[in-house]
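Illustration 12: Cytosol non-specific dipeptidase.
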Amino acid sequence: MNEISKIAPVAIWENFQKLCDTPRPSTKEEAVLQLLEKMADAKGFEHFRDSGSNLVISVPAKPGFENRKMAILQAHVDMVTQANSGSTHNFDTDPIRMLMNGEWITADNTTLGADNGIGAAAMMGFMTEEGLEHGPLELLFTVDEERGLTGAMNLEPGRLKGEILLNLDTEDEYELCVGCAGGGDLVASFAYTPEAVESGQVAREIALTGLKGGHSGIDIILGLGNANKLMGRFLRTVIRDLGARIVTINAGTARNAIPRESFATVVLPSDKASAFDGALSAFAVEVKDEIGVIEPNFAIAAKDAEVPTKAMSTTDSKRFNNAVVGAPNGVHAMSTSVEGVVETSINLAIVKLADGKADVTLSARSSINSARDALREVATSVFENIGATVKWGDAYPGWKPNADSEVVNMMKAVHRDMFGKDPEIRVIHAGLECGVLGSKYPHWDMVSFGPTIKRAHSPDECVHVPSVLRFWDYLLAALKAIPVKN
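Figure caption equivalent — predicted structure in token form:
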């Protein structure tokens, strides 16, 4: 890890090491905010937290750049907390352990937090590095982005003075993002009365593992396996054909991550145990045939378990699981205005069932608000049909693209000078904070960019080291090119 902190640019990697050493799950960002405040105090930089717990640090202009427009650098400080099964990592207390793999850096069986830690570390560089040339800056560190963009949604209007926002949360170099999807969640809660497990039953613990997972917006187009949909499909067979009853389900950990694993316990008549094992083997073959190319590590296995005293009734097992099977998931519509971009999708993210209560979380995204909510209505109707109570989370707006803005044209010119080519202009199917921030500060001219990060929101998350250096150099060149005040 110490060697990683010495990689160029040291301004980013030393600060990213500090972030990896500081636990920062969503809603638990206090330690990292205090770290940033201490860094600002050491430099004598003014700072404040707003009512949404977002931190703003003012960095004065360097000599010769005082007449430039004020730029805002923005990143979120929280991270998605996903670990491989069997990991004992405690995201509330344990540091993230970085690993070097060729030109890539990943973490030891957990998410890395490069999303959006690399962007935040770059901003920290303007508090630790001398000799950087730039005009007046505001460093906006937002909180709770990964859980629902609530930091951005609670940003106080009128307190920031900048005119140009550079969001550092895009995950492919040589690209500029100028628009994004909005989104909204829903949680379906189903209450049931557990019934006694009669004699002559056996219990099986099912483990569905090995899926890649990933970002529920960016990666939804890849056709990856969804652990909740696959588990529901298998359970439908054994409930219908073998009289199985559900005891527990535990699958998915984040609304914005495609679920990689699902664990379920069922009971069934002992004389059906052999048929259960055969059904499991057949299902494994089917799934590998269907998605084995994209999900080569998919696995499903079952082992004997202690027979519980109570389980979901046969009727409720069927009703609830049918709703999971029937719930919408994946890409729903492609954009008619931007080729190759997903317009509307939904992620069947989390299923938790035990002791008389089941909760299912789904997250919908769309560049069109009405389409987002129409898809949430589809999911709502599926679960209301079984008597579940459905609650919608607050929706967040998308970011309407303006590919010909002053800041975009400036960034394109800098890109051509540095790399000899134009950047790709993109609109992404993910919930960047720019949409929300722009609703608070409509006059901001915004663009988003970043280094190459793969498999965000999963333990396979990795960041491309050479791209981080190019990202840093591009950011420094862009700040030198910020136009003068009108």
